[in-house]
Amino acid sequence: MTSDIDRKGLAPEYWRTTPLSDMTRLEWEALCDGCGRCCLLKLEDEDTGQVAYTDVHCRLFDPDTCRCGNYAHRKRLVPGCVQLTPETIDASAPWMPETCAYRRLHEGRDLPDWHPLVTGDPDSPRKAGVAMHKSSVPEWEVDEDDLEDHIIEGML
Question: What is the pTM of this model?
């Protein structure tokens, strides 16, 4: 699997010295490991606030590449899409997977050892078994009432 995430010319281990709020757009975008987990539909327990992931992906998600099929226009095409920025990370972090670089750095943790910025290999999330590469179903194939049947145990 190849990556369209540009990681060329970045300072080594910049994420350890540069706060999320001070990152350039290139540095920010390079944090994405390309796992596709953020594109999975999530359910929130109304009583506890706990977030559960499903194996159902957004209609724009491409399971072959683990990328958004229309990244530039995703927010317009899918109004509920979370567009992570330094300004939205505080509210969005609880909805992101525990493995997410944005969430981890926001919470003061380091990148996982399989992250492409650590390994230099854009395919490392798939090799580590983290990427949703061909392992989810499109939302148009699942009735909204059946989403609970698609909860992935232990995803977070």
Answer: 0.87
